[in-house]
User: Fold these one by one.
Assistant:
Number 1:
Amino acid sequence: MEKNIVLDIKHLTVTFEVEGDVIEAVNDVSLTVREGETLGLVGETGAGKTTTALAALRLVPDPPGIIKSGEIFVCGHDIMKAKTKELEKIRGEEISMIFQDPMTSLNPVYTVGQQIAESIILHQGLSKSEAMKKAGDMLEIVGIPRSRVNEYPHQFSGGMKQRVVIAIALACNPKMLIADEPTTALDVTIQAQVLDLMKNLKEKYGTGTIMITHDLGIVAESCDRVAVMYAGSIVEEGTLEEVFNDTKHPYTEGLFNSLPNIGDYDTKLKPIPGLMPDPSKLPKGCAFAERCQYATEACREKKPETRSFSDTHFVKCTAYDDPGFHIERKVVFDE
């Protein structure tokens, strides 16, 4: 593994067995993240984004979840072969996750200082008093006065709870951070503050980051590369400029067409028709075919293969078997 790669996922497949059905949540996903790089992981609810993130920490609930195949390396550690003790050391010290809902991520019966100090004591071997002092330092880093270290989660607003969750995730300066929709349920002003905070921390510590989000505006503002996920697969991946300004996959085109165009008030929104397929009954061909305006019989009959448009831009789309194929979208995204 290259020295500057902090997360390397290869051919990851995750299923859930529920009431006799096999739900194909993640299908042959490969991702890499380098030091100081932010990868935006985008897609509809149920696309497999959070499951991919949980698999990176080997936190997929088993049962009913099963990591069927794949390799996961975090800072050179083989996550799939790691024993429980090694995993406990890697989580928090090498890789951390900001979970989706700050309202439920914090334990209501412990002070925020105790919750930040817990991982510091575990990973850095500090005494309780030293860990609490560092917990106060972490609160100040995320913009909360250290005087509030002995307060409980219910005494904080939603935005401040999110900052506390970020402080917990960053307490041991992990080299890899996964942020699962870190701005969900926050108002626009607090969203901007949280994103600025994460950007500053990335620049200060060189942390590699996966930003899981539905919001393409957040991706444009904070990400270096983008991976678009649909029905458990990465359908398009590239640099921010490639995915936004040289869109190749019809699903990515559909996501952009669903956004309002503030430069043209007469333009109507164009939603993607239909729904994502049932993950327990995925079609034998392209999972997006039934919603795709370009789909042919070949799209419905065979799984799309990965096609490279550059060293960094990859797309899974059978339509490109036709050398003359191109999508209609020509709008250049203005950052």
Number 2:
Amino acid sequence: MNTQIEENYLKALYHISLHNEGGKISVNELSRHLNIKMPTVNSMMKKLSEKGYVTYVSYKPIKLTPTGKLTAALIVRKHRLIEMFLVQEMGFGWEEVHDIAEQMEHIQSPKFFEKIDELLHYPKFDPHGSPIPDADGQVVSLNAVQLSECAPGRTVRLVGVRDSSEEFLQYLTGKHIKIGTKIKITGKEDFDGTMYCEIGKAAQLVFSKIIADKLLVE
């Protein structure tokens, strides 16, 4: 059985590897992501290597092994199923569920999560639009682009966010924006990428490029 600390490392490796070519991660990158000193990270990588979860050689990039990738994906699966359950079945706001899921993802009971999956009718995505790995660690591809890449005149639908922090989700909630919201793009500044949008009959909304980059639409 893995410790919570080991699971947190595996989850971090999983998330970083999705954005890196070949799934390779440097110790320095992992150290910055977790805000943990490099000697401590190196020590943990040796432990995870001994368990067969990563390939690790000093001064070379880390890579999850197939076993490590599956183990990490199943931790992410538990986290995202919990978030979905809290929102769909218990009425939590999407900005409230991350910290609770962080605590519950370490429960060691496959049957418990199988039951949650069944109760939710086997969702493919969590409340923030992130794909939920299946029991084999496989995920459905999210066919989306950043709002900032879209041209004026288009109407798109929000399918995910690149920032699931409480502050950002509260900002979106305050603008009455959630997964599935249709956004009509009415204008865009060439100079700084500021976007002018409409949502339903609400007043025109203005998104900075920083915000528009974080909204995934199709």
Number 3:
Amino acid sequence: MINNIESTVASTRVRLARNLAGYHFPNRLEPAVGKEIVRTVSDEACRLHPFNLYSMDEISENVAQALCDDHLISAGLAANRACGAALIDEEDEGVDGPRGKYSIMINEEDHLREQYIIRGLNLMLAYRRLSALDDELSKTIRFAFDKKLGYLTACPTNLGTGLRASVMLFLPGLTRTKKMKTVANIMSGLGHTVRGVYGEGSAADGYMYQISNEVTLGVDENYILTEVQRAVLEVVKLEALARENMLDADFDGVKDECMRAYGILTNCYMISFDEFLRLISAVKLGAAIGFLSVKNFPALDDLIAEVRPANIGLNYEEPLTPGERDKRRAAKGRAALKKIVRG
């Protein structure tokens, strides 16, 4: 059986909201001025890291959607074709821990949304790496800052540190035992929020939820990171208990669902993404509670990302038809699961 944290915590993301002093917020920028900000940020950031620049007016809708699916940009940035851009450093060296990904969204809600995404529960490490980049950028870019309010942001909820610390969690037990509303209320009382897989207003696809801090003003970064870590560990405990209760109520039914899902995914010829997500979520549940033995639990999440509609068609010159995507998704799923799941 996979340990509770590994089978529950998928990834960590820290994000810093920053704006350049002397400019309007992005929603009031003229396109020419927005492009000037892109050049300024890109020049300075690429001096520090080997970022790739993605201009929203140059990339295809499929590429933009793939970046959204991978949480490297938001839908809001993808829609800003006038002066939106993103800088993405695929992976750092990871010499002091697991590898991660940097992403700087330019002219989303704020001029900069600096992000670092890393696998597992790694809040302190993620913040340390992102903060180092932010410190270097601040040496040559003057950020809008007030002595009382801290970093100035387009939305008041980001004032102060501008730090949003988020952890992505796989919560099938709490979802199926109908405890998520209670969990959300508990988190709200602690100053945190529970959202779906793509943030505010999104659904909890595949039992995936984000827990993040709501307060950024009047507290420091260490307090935010420590409190989010504490909240996540408490939810991990609640999820473990919910899985036990779920099995006590219907052991045979849950096991049959998990094994049946594995059987379909390793034998189907065509499959839509919605059906794939439903079935692979059952496979993840089966692996988490010991019905299926997996070599690498996070590889199941990687597989989900790889077969999303935008990602499955990235390496083809011509757009794939829905049927072609469904066949390629099924083939990729069959091959991957045979490597991930032990016989």
